[in-house]
Task: inverse folding
């Protein structure tokens, strides 16, 4: 269940109330008012289902926008990102997170991770759950899409 805290400012032609003095209302929204579309694919080294890497290997993360770059440009969006989150194999512990700039009109992205960086992110060469989601940021708000995930096995 989603909720939003709102204030309603009353006004007439002659005067308006001070918004700071108004009572805050907690409005419950059934379902979602709006969400960014999820990415339509996520793969590691070209494998979307059962990717793996070996000792000393670099990996390449590929992702794509579900809208194919066809969403209209929104003037209220200040930043647009793809967030990559690296979790332990169980998905319980976040080990590392990074944001990659992902502007409107761009439909695909590639992120090369050198083995030394992967070890820094994960602590060692281990199997891990990778999640990717879109994030848009406005002046005072952020909206995330539902994440895509893939389990990457260390072999």
Result:
């Amino acid at each position: 269940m989603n909720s939003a805290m709102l204030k309603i400012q009353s006004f007439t032609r002659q005067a308006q109330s001070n918004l700071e003095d108004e009572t805050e209302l907690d409005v419950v929204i059934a379902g979602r008012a709006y969400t960014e579309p999820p990415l339509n694919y996520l793969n590691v080294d070209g494998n979307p289902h059962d990717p793996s890497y070996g000792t000393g290997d670099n990996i390449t993360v590929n992702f794509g926008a579900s809208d194919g770059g066809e969403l209209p440009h929104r003037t209220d969006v200040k930043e647009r990102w793809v967030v990559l989150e690296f979790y332990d194999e169980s998905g319980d512990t976040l080990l590392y997170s990074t944001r990659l700039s992902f502007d409107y009109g761009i439909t695909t992205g590639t992120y090369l991770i050198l083995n030394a960086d992967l070890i820094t992110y994960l602590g060692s060469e281990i199997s891990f759950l990778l999640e990717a989601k879109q994030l848009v940021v406005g002046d005072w708000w952020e909206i995330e899409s539902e994440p895509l995930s893939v389990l990457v096995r260390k072999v």
